[in-house]
Amino acid sequence: MHKKNKILLLMMVASTFSFAQPTESEIREFARTKSEQEIVTEASRMTQDGFIFSADILTDRLLEMNPLSANYNYRKGFMILNLTGNYVKAIPHFVLATTDIDPNYDMYSSKEKSSPTDAYYHLAQCYHYDENIDLAKENYQKFLDATKKKSELIPKAQLRIKQCELAKQLMASPVNVRLKNIGQTVNTNFPEYSPVVSLDGSALYFTSRRPWPNGETESFKDLAIDQYPEDVYVSFLAEDSNWMDPIMLNFCLPKRNEATMAVSTNERRIYLYEDSTGNGDIFYTDFYASKFNEITQLKGDKLNTDYWETHAMVSHDQSRIFFSSDRPGGFGGRDLYVSYRQADSSWSKPVNMGPRINTPNDEDSPFVSVDNRQLYYSSNGEKSMGGFDVMVCDLMADNTYSEGRNIGYPFNSTNDDIFYTTTVDGLKGYMTSYRKDGFGEKDIYEIYNDYLGVKSTAIFRGLIKTSDGSPLPEDFALNFKLMCDACDESEQYRSLFPRLRDGMFLTWIKPCQTYKIAYYNASDNQVMHEETFVTDCESDYQEIYRELVLDVPTRSIVIPKDTVLDIEPVLVTTHKNLEFIHYFDYNKNKLTVNKGDLKDFVKEIEAQLKDGRPRITINVYSSASHVPTKTYETNEKLTELRAENMKYDLQTHFEKNPDFAGKVNVVIVSAIVDGPEYEKDFKDKNKYKPYQFVGLKTE
């Protein structure tokens, strides 16, 4: 269509809605009453203006008019991909769209029956997300062969072909991880993302776009994408190792976007993304007077700018802040920057982290390990197998970080994998991903690995409670002095405040060093207790634990004798891991820890704990066959019951014994229905019994 005619049509359509974005009911009325040409014009305008939800309503009407139109199926696939990310649902529409391609596609004409060459690209994108790498490459190439040379999708298609090649390599050599969706207590059919796990794994802070329960956010819904504002929630880990119902934090407002970035070690400060000041900046909120207070923009020399600062992470020792920004002067879209804490506690001018990490594409969601030695982030460049992938780089002797590397498949997928954070040892983490087993557009996943953990590290952790059960004073603190004449002065002193909700404290300290700790009142510097200890030189990983009782009236510290642990290195690899499996008869689901092989398995775990193993995770795997069951309604319920019963019995057994309480974590890894399809031969036990089991593995 001639440019002048397009402008006239746009003016005509705009006047239809009085130059304002219409409501959903107005759009539906427009779709019901207007002509095909009017709907095509308005749908095209809204697509180009980013009002995808409204354009999708109009596209559904166009498909009713002509369900086999390549043009309308292309539009529908585009809407699905951009609204929900459901690439599986979008594929049939793009397949039909690619049966009729016209390089001179006119999106504003109802007479246009063909689809643009872009349909090849988006079909390839869906196959790519679906891990159908050969079909993805084939359609990316079809797009490159058919499209006009000025298309902005050309460099993206070329990049994605390279990502496909990497995907095939990584998928051929998978890494050893266990990944699971953390379930519908946290995840919903709305987007959940940007998880931040506490170092001890007891709390999960995250962002959700779910509606408020009493309708407070309805009038602030983003009509362009049909999504509610972002809010910050926290879920706590219950005694049965399941996540509790999330709680929305008190600083959230119904009309404002607040999204999680990072949480301080003691959970007294949350770093947030908020966009009311422009493109989006780094904010924070502090916990005092028994609540999180109003959010405040983080100050620093060029930390926040007029550009887009999307994510940030302050190291656990508070010495540096890593963040992402699309400000000018970088290597590509969003780059990672680092700023250092200065003597007056202000932040230095940010420094771009350089080409070892940053690419011509996007880098985002930095997270640094407890010892500062590993930096995790996500990139959608040539080192990704598709979308954003999690990368890791290492701190080197010159205080810079090594070149980033992909942490492998199936840790990463061919879709977006981003916002990775870990617990203290680096072996368990949480991230945002879009996968087939998800509940919404984005879900939060839990990941266990055996190759990314912190090395040669010492952890000092413990618990402080008050003698009368009253709340812990907010100014109680621990001061660490590194007894090292040759050490830099900035390393010699560090203060640590306990977590106020339960008195937990945790920090990284150096191996092979002598430390002096003062337990004191920060408001007047009154020292209540002091001790000195030495960290081991040879251990791969060690923990030093203390339990304290604070007598508030006298401001004195008592260390109960039965909680003083010998300061010996904890070697995490000195005990072998154990395995157990039991095969059930038809419809059976229960075992007891007091009999048979399971009793022996439990006794061996107890022996390892008595021998100094600090903690054990028992992973539960259960299965049911396809033989029908009336007793349990479905085989899915039967296998879930087998897993839940085993988890409950094991957790109860260890928690009721004071010697083992808090040292054993039981996790359901899988509960599946497996084996051959049922052929009315339930008496054939040899055929089905191998798929009726519960298995246990320790780590």
What can you see in these coordinates?
By secondary structure, the chain is of the alpha+beta class. 24% of the residues lie in helices and 28% in strands. Helix 4 (52-65) runs antiparallel to helix 5, helix 5 packs antiparallel against helix 6 and helix 7 packs antiparallel against helix 8 (133-146). The radius of gyration is 28 Å and the shape is globular.
Describe the SSE topology.
Elements: H1 3-16, H2 24-33, H3 36-48, H4 52-65, H5 70-83, H6 87-97, H7 118-129, H8 133-146, H9 154-172, E1 177-181, E2 192-197, E3 203-208, E4 231-236, E5 247-248, E6 259-263, E7 269-274, E8 281-288, E9 291-292, E10 296-297, E11 309-314, E12 320-325, E13 335-340, E14 351-352, E15 363-368, E16 374-379, E17 389-394, E18 405-406, E19 417-422, E20 428-433, E21 443-449, E22 457-466, E23 476-482, H10 489-492, E24 493-496, E25 504-509, E26 514-521, E27 526-534, E28 541-551, E29 556-558, E30 579-583, H11 596-610, E31 616-624, H12 635-655, E32 664-673, H13 685-688, E33 693-698
Helix pairs in contact: 2-4, 3-4, 4-5, 5-6, 6-7, 7-8, 8-9
